[in-house]
Amino acid sequence: MGTASLIISIIALIISLFIMPLTLFPFFSLLVLPLIAMVSILALVGLILGIVDWVSKHKKGLKKEKAIAGTICSAIAMLIITFWTIINIIFIGIGIAASL
Q: Which of 53, 79, 86, 99 could pair covalently with 1 via S-S, beta carbons 3.0-4.6 A apart?
């Protein structure tokens, strides 16, 4: 399970790094909304798998490096998604306020 969480986490991180800057542009923002949802789900699945694997390996006394790496990558992906979503909401708010 450690390898699965690491792979899912890395995929979520790479996709989030490429699509999140596109959300700053109003036209692309609507197009990448489904991708943002997909990346959020991937990051959440990677985070859950990483934590479950981390705890199970800790109980068995096994190496936890892949589980830790998967958990960290998923957490970074979640932070990136959250940051860009907040930035996008701010820009939408500024756009709405400017149109009034």
A: 53
Concatenated DSSP letters for 29-94? HHHSHHHHHHHHHHHHHHHHHHHHHHHHHHHHT---HHHHHHHHHHHHHHHHHHHHHHHHHHHHHH
Please give the model's pTM, rounded to 2 decimal places: 0.73
Domain interval for residue 59: 2-99
Distance, in Å, from the CA atom of 39 to the CA atom of 77, rounded to the nearest integer, reads 8
Backbone angles phi, psi at 32, to 5 degrees: -95, 0
Using CA atoms, how far apart are residues 41 and 81, in angstroms rounded to an integer? 11
pLDDT above 70 covers a percentage of the chain that reads: 77
What the block records as the tokens of 37 is 């949802």
For residue 10 the two structure tokens come to 């890395």
- pLDDT, tens digit (0-9, with 9 covering 90-100), for 30-56: 667 777 788 788 888 888 888 888 888
